[in-house]
Amino acid sequence: MTLTLVHRSPWWARRLIPVVVLSVLAVLAAVPASAQEAEPAVPEPPPGGSPVGPTELTEEPPPGEPPPAPMPLDPSPHVRVLVAHFAIFDARDGLALEQLRHADARAKFVEAEQAAVDAQLRLESEQASLDAARTNLREFSIGLFIHANGGITTDTEIDEFGEFEQRKAKQLTDTVRDHRLTMVEEAKDRITAASLNLDVARQDAARANEVLVDHERRVADAAQRLRDAEQELRTAQREDELVPFERDPDDDGELDDRDRERGHDGKLAVADRSLGRWELRIEGQSIFTPDELAAWFATFQVMPTRSSAPAADLARWFIEEGGVEGLRGDVAFAQAILETGSFTNLDTINHNNFAGIGHCDSCPSGWHFSTPQDGVRAQVQLLKSYVYDEPDYAHDLVDQRLRGPAGCCQTWSELSGVWASANGYGAHIMRIYEQMLEWLYLQRTGLPPPDRPAPTASIPG
Predict the structure, then answer these.
(1) CB burial of residue 252 (10 Å; 0-12, 13-18, 19+)
(2) Which tens digits make up the pLDDT trace of 186-228?
(3) CATH topology of domain 95-228
């Protein structure tokens, strides 16, 4: 079964009740009530942050004509700037870590090299000892040959020396000879051990050198990632402007030859399906940690969550479930805030459903999930089915009906008109996420977040 929620408006649009998530929409006051669609509220900005609310642009209509429907402005360009800043933070941390690891690898390599040098010197010393022992034994043997019978050379001398003394001299000679033979054998054994130690030391040094070379490569890669992140920030800053949210009119959401030519098969990459504008991918790593996400929610929520699980648990599950599926769990959390009015609607209370899954305009409720964690997992799994043509899940599906239009949407903006029918659905998610990132920027740096530019785009006539 393919689950496409395009027929369903978000809960706030179905009931036409402006839900205060974290602040009210200031700009909508200037639009006639008949032209307004109930929009999701977004959090108040952090100190030094930019104005909030999904800003809308309209043109003055000709006399006698009704005003056009408001067009939500897409904050994705500014989200790109913020994401680029965090990418730089991560790249700097990554480079510093790799440099520390490289320094440690170099110290171990130097230590291994010194051990090999010491082993070589030890072997040379043992070889010298063996040579000395062999020389001593050879000289002793020559002496025995010259002074046979203990130095007694005539029969008279033998008789005078006596049989007892002769045996005594021979015993002493044999003892000295055996001792010197033992010294030679022991020197040989020490050389064998020293040779083995040298081989081991050389192998250790070779492995340490391989590790060092690998860490040198890692440092170079980390430095390149930092340069790439800095270049991306410059590009993002240059292109940072609020633009009207529009979807490519030629895009039907299906995988076509154009996508396949770009390599978008099976696991799709970013598709330029929104007039070439940059959009945040659904696939990727969360920027928030679970603790940071819970702290943000605690800071800006205006009413207590009515979920059966604490907000801290919800935050942790969104990050963890998103992580194992390769999706941005922190943005899925922003989507859930939009869908549930900060985890306060009836789907949250009664069904552990945080994304309006299965909740059409005529349905009394969305699907039911047994636990809050199952509700989070279901949302992430359904998102993954939108991203990939043939998704591979880390866990069994919570519900076998969790099948979206495969490969339809690689970015959050592309969910507009697909996950929900609301105009600018993805832009509203991005608005919440933008404010989340601005708060996080202040928390991590102690500095005000970068300003968002004033709207400069206009609606086509």
Answers:
(1) exposed
(2) 878 888 888 888 899 899 999 999 999 999 999 999 999 999 9
(3) Helix Hairpins (1.10.287)
| Total-model pTM | 0.70
In the CATH scheme, what is the code of domain 11-60+70-75+243-445? 1.10.530.10
Contacts of 57 (CB under 8 A, 6+ apart): 70, 71, 73, 244, 455, 457, 458, 459
Q: Which residue's structure tokens are 């989070």?
A: 376
The CA distance from 191 to 127, in Å, is: 6
- CA neighbor of 356 nearest in space, from 420, 404, 287: 420
Give the length of the chain: 461
Per-residue model confidence as pLDDT tens digits over 281-302: 999 999 999 999 999 999 988 7
